[in-house]
Design a protein that fits this description.
Blueprint (H helix, E strand, L loop, with lengths): L1 E6 L7 H14 L4 E3 L13 H7 L7 H13 L2 E10 L2 E10 L2 E7 L7 H4 L9 E3 L4 E6 L6 H9 L4 E5 L7 H12 L2 E5 L4 E4 L2 E4 L5 E3 L5 E4 L6 E6 L3 H4 L31
Parallel strand pairs: 1-2, 2-3, 7-8, 8-9
Antiparallel strand pairs: 1-14, 3-4, 4-5, 6-7, 9-12, 10-11, 12-13
């Protein structure tokens, strides 16, 4: 199974330009499962709900979904791509999942980061896993990585590969994904963007370094900090399905859910 990512610099609000660049890179890719960055078609640095609304699209009826469906059909690929989804009166930071046969599913970002909380509705769908025939893929978006529960749920649902659409600005995420893969014995494809977004006197700088990580916490591919890049690795799915650490320990079977009740309780800051 070949997994891969597309890394490039989207330009804010220039949807047609971004789609043209993504199409160019997708057509050059050779992966069976391909991951694109978060908000790949619109850019990320929104300043108002009006901007978010204007740049949102319905899934799968919008032009971005239609293009990805067409490309997936032509290439025989599965594509996971981050975009802004409009659903009725609500707007989500979402990832669309398409297959050679059409729209496969949609994931809506559960853990919103920073000012995203001003613009987006928190995700209302469970973390999804899809069987591609090559292997099972799970989906999460950017800041979801910071919460260990995200990757663990995907592993428990049988994901072999975590498709991680991202617009990373924090310096340590790439290294954090090594831990997520090691503690769940899964592969992960983190597709990040590059460049800076300047809006007035504000700037966001993205860290690039998209990567593919193995289930032993091994780095299989890491892209450059800047520049367009297509990363592809041929992986052995069986490595993600072996959760046995030794004769006595199985990564998932040795869990003690009956002892984890505190995990689902609301956090109450200690009194000072």
């Amino acid at each position: 199974m070949k997994v891969g990512f597309i890394q490039f610099e989207p330009y804010f609000g220039q949807v047609d330009r971004n789609l043209a660049k993504a199409e160019e890179l997708i057509l050059k890719s050779e992966a069976d499962v391909l991951v694109l960055p978060e908000c790949f078609n619109t850019g990320y640095f929104f300043l108002s709900k009006e901007e978010v609304r204007d740049l949102s699209e319905n899934i799968p009826e919008g032009k971005t979904s239609k293009l990805l469906i067409d490309l997936a059909g032509r290439k025989g690929q599965y594509i996971v791509a981050g975009m802004v989804e409009r659903s009725g009166d609500r707007v989500f930071n979402s990832a669309v999942v398409v297959s050679p046969r059409g729209h496969l599913g949609t994931y809506r970002k559960i853990h919103l980061f920073s000012e995203e909380k001003l613009w987006f509705t928190p995700g209302d769908l469970p973390f999804p896993v899809y069987d591609t025939g090559f292997g099972k893929i799970g989906v999460m978006i950017c800041f979801d990585w910071f919460f260990p529960e995200s990757a663990r749920i995907l592993a428990l649902k049988g994901a072999d590969v975590i498709c991680h659409c991202a617009n990373l600005v924090l310096p340590y995420c790439q290294d954090g994904m090594i831990t997520r893969c090691l503690e769940n014995r899964v592969f992960a494809v983190t597709a990040n963007r590059t460049g800076d977004e300047r809006r007035g006197d504000k700037i966001l700088s993205y860290t690039g370094r998209s990567q593919i990580t193995g289930p032993q916490g091994n780095l299989l591919y890491r892209a450059s900090v800047d520049g367009d890049e297509i990363g592809t690795v041929d992986i052995d799915i069986k490595l993600a399905r072996n959760k046995r650490l030794n004769v006595y320990n199985h990564l998932l079977n040795n869990r003690r859910p009956e002892m984890y009740g505190d995990l689902i309780e609301p956090f109450h800051p200690p009194k000072t």
